[in-house]
C-alpha cells in the first residue's frame, strides 16, 4: 500500500474486496477529488453506493477514516459489513452510547494506535473532548459526514448536534479531506451544508436522481374525505405488488390512516417520532421482515431504512418541499424493479405545512441570544460541549441564525444590531422556505413531465420527458422547448432581477416559463416573455 493511492488502486480494491465490476457514476468523480486532497459534497440517491465512496479510499489511505453518522443502528450495520469483508485492512469500530464504556475506550485507543481503519462516531460523541483528543491522536486521513443535510438549518432533518462538526474537524492537524454525504439537497441546502461543515474548495457532485424505475403520479381531490378514501383504495391495490410506505403530515394521521387501511384488510404499522424507541424499532423490524403490508409514517421514518424491495410510496399529505418529497420517494424501488410514487393533493393541504413552517423569531429573543453569545453564556454553548450537543432544536436554530448575523455585522456589533441583521436573515429564509412549498404546489399542478420538474429543482437536467409519469402518459408533457441552445439563459446561469436580486436559472417549464432560484427570495417561476420583453433578467 502506498502513501498516495491512485484511482486505479481504488478500482482494484472495488473489484477484489467488494466484488464490484467498476465504480458507479458519482463515485468515481468523488473518489478522484478525495484522492487529490479536496473536500467533497456528494449528493447521491439512497441506494446509490454513498458508503463505498469513503470505504474504498479508506482501505487505501494510510491513516484511519473517521465516519460521523447520526444513527447508531446504521453505524453498527456499517461496522458489521466491513468486518464481514474478511479483509485485515477493514478493521472497524463504533463509539456510541449503545457501546459499553470499556469498549468505547478500547476502540479509541485502537484508533490512536493505528489499529483501526474505520472509526464511526455520532456528532454527540465528537463533541466530547476526550473523544476528540483520541481522534486527533489517530490522525485520520479522511473524514466522512453521513446524512450531511442534517447540519443545514434549512434542511427538513435539521439536527442541532451537527452544528459544531465543522469547527471540531478544523481542530484536526493535519486537517484531512472531508466528504459530506447526503441523499437529498437542493441548491440552498447544499450551500448551507458546505458553509456549516467548513468545506474547503469542495467538489460538489450531484448524480443519479432520475430514478426512471419509479413512476410518478399526482392524484388531485377536492374534499378531505374523498382523498382519504382514494388513498385507501390505491394503497390496497398497490399492496398486491409488495410492501410500501404511506407518508402523512401529523402523528395523529399515522394512526388514523393505519386504522383505515387495517379495516380494508391490510397489515399495517404506524410510525412517528413520538413513539417509544422500542415501538419504533418494532415497527421498523416488522417492515423489514415483511410482516406488514404498509407502514404509515411521518417524515421521522426513513433515515437508515435499508429495504430495497419497497414497491410503492404514497404521500397522503403534501410534504413541505420537493427536497423532502424526492428523498422519501427515493425509498421505493432500490432493487431496480418497477415502483410507483403517488402524491394525493388538495391545495388546502398546503396550509398544514405553513403551520409547521419555522417562523421568523422575535427580535427580543434574537437580542437575548446575541447578548448570551457575546458574553459566552449558555446560548453560546460554551458551558459544556455535551450540553451544546443537546441544545433544543429551536434554540440551536436561533444560535445558528445569530452567529450568521454576527459574521455579517461584525464581532463588535451591539446585540441590537446583530438582532436586526438576524431578523433580516430569518425573513429571507422564510421567503425561501415558502417558495419551496410553492414549488410543491407547482409540482402537483404542472402539466409538464414531473421528473423533469423535480430534477430541475435539484439542479439536474433531463433533456427529454421521462415517459414514466402521469403527465407523460396523458400526453401533456411537452419536449423541453427551451434547451441551452435556444433559451435566453442556460441552466446554471447567474442572473439579476431588479426586485429579487441575484439568482440562478434552474430550468424551464414548457416554452413560456423560467424558474430562478434567488438568493433572498427563493424559487420564482417567471413569465419568459415578460422578463425578456421588459429586460427584467440580465446575466451577471
What layout of secondary structure does this protein have?
Blueprint: H1 7-16, H2 27-35, E1 40-43, H3 52-60, E2 65-68, H4 72-83, E3 92-95, H5 101-112, E4 118-121, H6 123-126, H7 129-138, E5 142-145, H8 165-170, E6 178-182, H9 187-196, E7 203-206, E8 214-220, H10 224-238, E9 244-247, H11 251-263, E10 268-271, H12 277-288, E11 294-297, E12 312-315, H13 322-329, E13 339-345, H14 350-356, H15 363-374, H16 385-389, H17 393-409, H18 415-445, H19 450-457, H20 470-474, E14 494-497, E15 501-509, E16 513-518, E17 522-527, H21 528-533, E18 538-539
Parallel strand pairs: 1-6, 1-7, 2-4, 2-5, 3-4, 5-6, 8-13, 9-11, 9-12, 10-11, 12-13
Antiparallel strand pairs: 14-15, 14-18, 15-16, 16-17
Helix pairs in contact: 1-3, 2-3, 5-7, 15-17, 15-18, 17-18
Enzyme class: isomerase
Domain Helicase ATP-binding: 31-203
Protein name: ATP-dependent DNA helicase RecQ
Amino acid at each position: 500500500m502506498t502513501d498516495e493511492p491512485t484511482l486505479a488502486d481504488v478500482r482494484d480494491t472495488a473489484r477484489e474486496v467488494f466484488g464490484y465490476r467498476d465504480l458507479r457514476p458519482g463515485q468515481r468523480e468523488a473518489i478522484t477529488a478525495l484522492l487529490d486532497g479536496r473536500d467533497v459534497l456528494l449528493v447521491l440517491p439512497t441506494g446509490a453506493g454513498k458508503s463505498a465512496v469513503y470505504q474504498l479510499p479508506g482501505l487505501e489511505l494510510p491513516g484511519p477514516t473517521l465516519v460521523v453518522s447520526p444513527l447508531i443502528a446504521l453505524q453498527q450495520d456499517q461496522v458489521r459489513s466491513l468486518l464481514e469483508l474478511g479483509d485485515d485492512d477493514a478493521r472497524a469500530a463504533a463509539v456510541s452510547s449503545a457501546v459499553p464504556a470499556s469498549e468505547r475506550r478500547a476502540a479509541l485507543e485502537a484508533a490512536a494506535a493505528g489499529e483501526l481503519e474505520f472509526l464511526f462516531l455520532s456528532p454527540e460523541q465528537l463533541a466530547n473532548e476526550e473523544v476528540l483528543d483520541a481522534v486527533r491522536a489517530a490522525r485520520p486521513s479522511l473524514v466522512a459526514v453521513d446524512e450531511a443535510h442534517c447540519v443545514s438549518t434549512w434542511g427538513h432533518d435539521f439536527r442541532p448536534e451537527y452544528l459544531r462538526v465543522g469547527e471540531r474537524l478544523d481542530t484536526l492537524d493535519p486537517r484531512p479531506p472531508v466528504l459530506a454525504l447526503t441523499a437529498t439537497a437542493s441548491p440552498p441546502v447544499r450551500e448551507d451544508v458546505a458553509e456549516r461543515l467548513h468545506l474547503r474548495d469542495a467538489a460538489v457532485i450531484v448524480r443519479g436522481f432520475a430514478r426512471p424505475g419509479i413512476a410518478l403520479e399526482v392524484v388531485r381531490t377536492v374534499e378531505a374525505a374523498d382523498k382519504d378514501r382514494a388513498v385507501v383504495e390505491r394503497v390496497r391495490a398497490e399492496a398486491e405488488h409488495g410492501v410500501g410506505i404511506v407518508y402523512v403530515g401529523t402523528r395523529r394521521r399515522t394512526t388514523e390512516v393505519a386504522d383505515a387501511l387495517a379495516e380494508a384488510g391490510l397489515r399495517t404499522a404506524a410510525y412517528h417520532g413520538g413513539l417509544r424507541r422500542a415501538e419504533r424499532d418494532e415497527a421498523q423490524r416488522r417492515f423489514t421482515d415483511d410482516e406488514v403490508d404498509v407502514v404509515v409514517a411521518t417524515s421521522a421514518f426513513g433515515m437508515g431504512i435499508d429495504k430495497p424491495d419497497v414497491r410503492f410510496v404514497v404521500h397522503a399529505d403534501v410534504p413541505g418541499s420537493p427536497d423532502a418529497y424526492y428523498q422519501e420517494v427515493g425509498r421505493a424501488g432500490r432493487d431496480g424493479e418497477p415502483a410507483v410514487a403517488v402524491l394525493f393533493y388538495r391545495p388546502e393541504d398546503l396550509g398544514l405545512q405553513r403551520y409547521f413552517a419555522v417562523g421568523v423569531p422575535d427580535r427580543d429573543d434574537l437580542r437575548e441570544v446575541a447578548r448570551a453569545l457575546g458574553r459566552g453564556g449558555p446560548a453560546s454553548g460554551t458551558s459544556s460541549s455535551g450540553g451544546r450537543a443537546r441544545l433544543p432544536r429551536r434554540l440551536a436554530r436561533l444560535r445558528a441564525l445569530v452567529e450568521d448575523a454576527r459574521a455579517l455585522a461584525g464581532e463588535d456589533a451591539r446585540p441590537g444590531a446583530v438582532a436586526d441583521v438576524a431578523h433580516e436573515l430569518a425573513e429571507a429564509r422564510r421567503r425561501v422556505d415558502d417558495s419551496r412549498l410553492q414549488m410543491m404546489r407547482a409540482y402537483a399542478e404542472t402539466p409538464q413531465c414531473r421528473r423533469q420538474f423535480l430534477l430541475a429543482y435539484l439542479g439536474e437536467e433531463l433533456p427529454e420527458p421521462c415517459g414514466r409519469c402521469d403527465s407523460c402518459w396523458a400526453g401533456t408533457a411537452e419536449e423541453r422547448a427551451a434547451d441551452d441552445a435556444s433559451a435566453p439563459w442556460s441552466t446554471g446561469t447567474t442572473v439579476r432581477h431588479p426586485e429579487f436580486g441575484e439568482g440562478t436559472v434552474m430550468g424551464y417549464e414548457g416554452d413560456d416559463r423560467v424558474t430562478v432560484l434567488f438568493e433572498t427570495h427563493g424559487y420564482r417561476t417567471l413569465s419568459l416573455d415578460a422578463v425578456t420583453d421588459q429586460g427584467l433578467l440580465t446575466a451577471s
